[in-house]
Amino acid sequence: MDTELARLASLQCVQRVMQDCERHLGISDRDLADFLIQLATTHPTQDALASALAAAEVECSPAFISALLRTVEAYAPSKRGGSAGAAGAKADTHDGAAGAATSAGAE
Question: In angstroms, what CA-CA distances link 2 with 58, 83, 85?
Fold first, then answer.
């Protein structure tokens, strides 16, 4: 059952990142979302992710980078044994990832 929940959390994370891409970049692509999630999980700070994106020749605004990090933090299955994905899913609000990140951090 935990594997199914992790899979669902992963799918939800991809969908949320695709929505962020559509909102900020005008592109909604699953491969791009997977790439960005991978980068965000290996570069968990704004500066590190901005550098990694620049190295990959991806141009994006600081607002998009911030939104991407919030989304991945809230919805990606945690590799540290916690359940960040479940916390983010429960905290779904009209504001989306920003509300989820705030709620997940408050717990």
Answer: 34, 10, 12
CA 103 vs. chain centroid, Å, equals 15
Quote the DSSP letter at residue 77. Answer: P
Q: Which residues contact 86 (CB under 8 A, 6 or more apart)?
A: 5, 9
In tens, the pLDDT along 19-43 reads: 999 999 999 999 999 999 999 999 9
CA 8, CA 55: separation in Å to the nearest integer? 31
Q: Give 92-106 pLDDT, tens digit per residue.
A: 433 444 444 433 444
DSSP run (H or E) holding 81? none
